Amino acid sequence: MKVLVFSIGADRYGLRLGAIARVLPAAQLRQLPLAPPFVAGLMDLHGEPVPVLDLSRLAGVTPLQIWFDTRIILVDYEVGGKGGNSCVRPLGLLAEHVLGIETLIEADLADSGIQAAPFLGQVAATGAGMVQLVELAQLLPLDVRALLFATSAVAP
Fold first, then answer.
1. What's the confidence (pLDDT) of residue 73?
2. So what CATH class is 2-151?
3. Record's InterPro entries (predicted)?
4. In sequence order, what are the residues at sequence separation of 6 or more whose Cβ sits closer than 8 angstroms to the Cβ of residue 143?
5. Which of 7, 30, 93, 136 could form a disulfide linkage to 97, CB 3.0–4.6 angstroms apart?
6. pLDDT of 65-103, one tens digit each?
7. What SS3 class is residue 106?
């Protein structure tokens, strides 16, 4: 499986390439008052407001600094809707250092056993070090989904 690898602090994380729509340079973000600290703000993507999460803050690490290799990873985020319907909305993930693409062997993936951060998934050891997968489906609690996306598209 191919993943985009990025770092949060000294640790390496990965997102499955199939989940990624685009990778963009860091952009100016509009702040969202009263949003949780891990919400970096809104970016303007061709006239559409897209919420952006600061992956460093979400992981409980010192907030990121914008570097040359800081990127906004744009993903198609599935938002559960009423009556079992769901829709896909763009979501930006601000990653401090994007390191590149690596291949992980699925047989090498192991459960991390981490309960404190439900969005962190399986782990694989690579020649460059350990990579832990970020699971998009478990990234946001329902109340934050309702805050960031139209409440008409979010289940109560």
1. 95
2. mainly beta
3. CheW (IPR039315), CheW-like_dom_sf (IPR036061), CheW-lke_dom (IPR002545)
4. none
5. 7
6. 777 778 999 999 988 755 567 788 999 999 988 999 999
7. helix
Structural domain boundaries in the chain: 2-151
Distance CA 35, CA 145 (A): 11
For the chain, 156 residues long, the average pLDDT of each consecutive 10-residue run is: 89 93 91 88 93 88 75 90 74 91 86 70 83 88 81 42
Yes or no: say if 51 and 91 are a contact pair by the CB < 8 Å rule: yes
Tell me the residue type at 113. G
Q: Which residues are CB-contacts of 31 (< 8 A; sequence separation ≥ 6)? A: 41
**Residue with tokens 């109340």, as numbered in its chain:** 143
**Contact between residue 70 and residue 96 where contact means Cβ atoms under 8 Å apart:** yes
- 84 torsion bin: left (phi>0), alpha (psi -120 to 50), beta (else): left
Q: Report the distance separating Cα 136 and Cα 6, nearest Å.
A: 15
Taking alpha carbons only, the member of 151, 143, 120 closest to residue 12 is 120
